């Protein structure tokens, strides 16, 4: 018989976390951050956030394309191929 190598917890019988408790644990309260703003300017948590947040370790798409070996890159299309695709799409 088949014996599974990976066991997953049973979701139906396990205790379900309460949504409000998990949200309060992960997000600081709105009232506390407003009190800090009025007392000393911006809240310290918002000062270090950059407008574009990137996940560390994942390269940008253009950076990835530049470092990709030629055999894995997309083949360049001629103008004739591009025109044929665009015209056939309209028909």
UniProtKB/TrEMBL annotation:
Keywords: Mitochondrion. It is found in: Mitochondrion. This is RT36 protein. GO terms for cellular component: mitochondrion. Its main location: mitochondrion. GO terms for biological process: 2-oxoglutarate metabolic process. Signal peptide: none annotated. Residues 1-62 are annotated as: Disordered. InterPro entries: Kgd4/YMR-31. Belongs to the alpha-ketoglutarate dehydrogenase component 4 family.
């Amino acid at each position: 018989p088949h014996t599974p190598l990976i066991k997953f917890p049973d979701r139906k019988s396990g205790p379900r976390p309460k949504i409000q408790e998990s949200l309060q644990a992960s997000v600081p309260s709105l009232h506390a951050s407003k009190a800090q703003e009025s007392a000393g300017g911006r809240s310290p948590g918002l000062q270090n956030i950059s407008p574009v947040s990137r996940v560390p370790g994942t390269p940008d798409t253009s950076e990835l394309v530049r470092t990709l070996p030629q055999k894995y890159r997309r083949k360049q299309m001629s103008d004739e191929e591009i025109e044929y695709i665009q015209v056939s799409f309209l028909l």
